[in-house]
Amino acid sequence: MSGNGGLGRSWKVAALAATAAVLVFALPARAQQDMQRIAAVVNDEIISYFDLNARVQFALVSSNAPDTPENRKRFLQQVLKSMIDEKLQKQEANKQNVKITESELNRALTDLEKQNNMPAGGLDKYLQSNNVPRSALVQQVESTLAWQKLVQRRLKPKVEIGDDEVDEALQRIEASRGQPEMHVAEIFLAVDSPDQEDEVLKNLERLIDQLARGARFPAIARQFSQSASAAAGGDLGWVQQGQLDEQLEAVLKQMPPATISKPVRTVGGYYLLALIEKREAGGAGPPRLKLQQAMLPIPPRAPAGDIDALRAQLDNAAAAAKDCAAFDQAVKAMGRSRSVNLGDVAMTELPGPLRALVEPLKPGQAMAAVQADAGTVMTLMVCDRKDPEPTPLPGREDIRDRITQQRLDLMARRYLRDIRRAAFVDLRV
Fold first, then answer.
1. Looking at residue 20, what is its pLDDT?
2. Which of 6-15, 37-46, 350-359, 409-418 has the lowest mean pLDDT?
3. Among 273, 274, 255, which residue's Cα sits nearest to residue 264?
């Protein structure tokens, strides 16, 4: 992306860089140089390498991807593209006099804590413990809120859903009663022009590679998806036949549960679909679990007998513990160990081999410890388990809201596409 910024913009960018230099004068020379380097210029604003590296760090941590030079390189370009879009969204919101209050920002951060089963203040501790500046998350959340508010204010009044559309959708849902419905999540990357085709596909392939290496789909969706569902980790909820694009439904029908599709090309761009679960329309969803994960590191070049001893250590601690709290304390007392509350997850979100080990467990029971990779043994204990009741089919207002959101999402993509085309963006990476 590029454009003619003019002398005025260049002067403003230079002034911003000079201001940044004043703010970091007390840092070591090398750190000053890194912070002052410009990764991109977006109209009259800069994205510094400092901010870019902070967001890459956040993307690695939140997606559970190992922090390696290779992963940083894979994430960098896509993270930068997301940050450029966020700059453009925030700039457009400012132009339209859309502001985010401190209370709105704090409420959104509190909601993030709740979604991740963190106590009050847990988000800040999580960021600090993973060397992620709080600003990396705050800037992302603030841009997302500003764009959502702008879309609601400027575009939603233009969306009109007729009763006939709702009736037609209701008829499809009634016809699908007893037929399979799907719990789906998505990652969407837009293709605004033919010359972006290869770049977007390469970016999506990088994300697929990270997912194959153990990155979490919801975290990748939050960081990189360009659909409105990104705020919910790409989760579309339960969908019935006829509610998604025909191309997407055709792919989903061929997928087994707990799998991720190959890239799916549609008119607007590429989708990556996660089929979480299938069920009979109106039926119950998968069991939901609260899990405690415990891990012990394997020393380099450890013989098989030592690895078996580490697994036995975790198994014994789990057998002696009455619940997850006691197990957590026992694991932490081992030294060099990690005990993590994974919060609330659907049974189907677990990888197939782990699901088979966890499925028969009751609260307070743990699966037999396994070797997770070359450097770790791990186990999972079930803290709580809930088997959901059958859910009713959606009503008229639910259907109207879904159609409205689908149409609004499409309009928002076009809006952002037009903003991109009119923007001055100078990449320095």
1. 36
2. 6-15
3. 273
Q: 């999402």: which residue's tokens?
A: 409
Tokens of 334: 């081992």
**Phi/psi of residue 327, each to 5°?**
-65, -40
Domain 179-285+415-424 adopts which CATH fold? Chitinase A; domain 3 (3.10.50)
Residue with tokens 């069920």: 279
Picking from 342, 238, 249, the residue whose alpha carbon sits closest to that of residue 295 is: 342
Does the model's pTM come out above 0.70?
A: no
**Res 34: pLDDT:** 54
The angle that helices 69-95 and 197-212 make with each other, rounded to 10 degrees, is 120
pLDDT for res 283:
60
Return the pLDDT at 73.
Answer: 86
- Name all contacts of 213-220 with Cβ < 8 Å and 24+ positions apart: 213/65, 213/66, 213/71, 214/64, 214/65, 214/66, 215/63, 215/64, 215/65, 216/62, 216/63, 216/64, 217/185, 217/187, 217/260, 217/274, 218/185, 219/59, 219/62, 219/63, 219/64, 220/63, 220/187
| Helix (H) or strand (E) run with residue 322 in it | none
Same fold, 179-285+415-424 and 288-386: yes
6-154 is classed CATH 1.10.4030.10? yes
Report the distance separating Cα 359 and Cα 356, nearest Å: 6
Give CA–CA dist 374/48, Å, rounded: 36
Give the model confidence (pLDDT) of 267-286 as tens digits: 889 999 999 988 776 666 67
CA–CA separation, 143 and 164 (whole Å): 36
Fold of 288-386: Chitinase A; domain 3 (3.10.50)
Sheet (strand 45-48) strand order: 45-48, 38-42, 425-427
Q: Are strands 180-190 and 45-48 parallel, antiparallel or unpaired?
A: unpaired
State how far the Cα of 148 lies from the Cα of 144, in Å rounded to an integer.
Answer: 6
Burial bucket for residue 386 (CB in 10 Å: 0-12, 13-18, 19+) = exposed
